Amino acid sequence: GQQLNQSPQSMFIQEGEDVSMNCTSSSIFNTWLWYKQDPGEGPVLLIALYKAGELTSNGRLTAQFGITRKDSFLNISASIPSDVGIYFCAGGNQFYFGTGTSLTVIP
Amino acid sequence: DAGVTQSPTHLIKTRGQHVTLRCSPISGHKSVSWYQQVLGQGPQFIFQYYEKEERGRGNFPDRFSARQFPNYSSELNVNALLLGDSALYLCASSLDPTGGLANYGYTFGSGTRLTVV
């Protein structure tokens, strides 16, 4: 099945730094969602986007639905150790997931 | 409230065997989706069921099948297991197939870890 391309593949940052990651697709999607997955657990929804150009925040997390509807971005401000995990984007009623961005926060 | 529950949590099978994985959605959720997540990759969509009918199917061979019961629980069956079927199998539920725009997204269970030897 199709997988969305996420970048970067992995990130190692200092606690307190901001984080940016993105997700691109060759297809247009009407929905973009961002999930976080901890080891041994299923993904947990962070943010959902339903409109091109939409910018949505959830605490320190901000996500944007790209104007072309082929991409989305996730930003995490002032990272903390519990932000560690793998972040996935998903599009198209969640039929398609990204390849994941692994985030490591160094205290 | 109970979340999405999956059973068993871990399973070891031999090549060629058959396996049945089970999922109970959140109470009130009528849509169930199944995903395969190979280590180091994102979830791959297998099936979506809504009101006991198949609403979507991913690019998986016919060895994979599923069904949804009147109580909205679901089973994923895999026949003639291959080594490559080893993965975390995730179930996700939602109010409806769109993910429920008013309650966006799906809620995932913790998965069943299948190892084929």
Largest sheet of chain A: 6 strands, mixed
Give the DSSP E fraction of chain B (strand runs of 2 or more residues).
Answer: over 45%
Give unreliable regions of chain B as ranges: none
Tally of DSSP helical segments of chain B:
0
Count of DSSP strands of chain A:
11
Shape of chain B: globular
Helical run tally of chain A: 0
Q: In angstroms, what separates the terminal alpha carbons of chain A?
A: 37 Å
Mean pLDDT across residues of chain A: 92
Please explain how this structure is put together:
The complex is a heterodimer of chains A (107) and B (117). Chain A is an all-beta fold and 107 residues long. Chain A has strands at residues 5-7, 10-14, 19-24, 32-37, 44-49, 55-58, 61-65, 71-76, 85-91, 96-97, 101-106. In chain A, the strands form two sheets. In chain A, strands 2, 4, 5, 9, 10 and 11 form a six-stranded mixed sheet that branches. The relative contact order of chain A is 0.34. By secondary structure, chain B is mainly β. Chain B has no helices and eleven strands. In chain B, the strands form two sheets. In chain B, strands 2, 4, 5, 6, 9, 10 and 11 form a seven-stranded mixed sheet that branches. A four-stranded antiparallel sheet of chain B has the order 1-3-8-7, with no helix packed on it. In chain B, strand 5 and strand 6 (53-57) form a beta hairpin. The mean pLDDT of chain B is 91. The chains are: A mainly beta (107), B mainly beta (117). Chain A binds chain B through residues 1, 3-4, 6, 31, 33, 35, 40-45, 48, 50, 88, 93-100, and chain B through 4, 33, 35, 41-45, 48, 56, 58-60, 90, 92, 97-99, 101, 104-111.
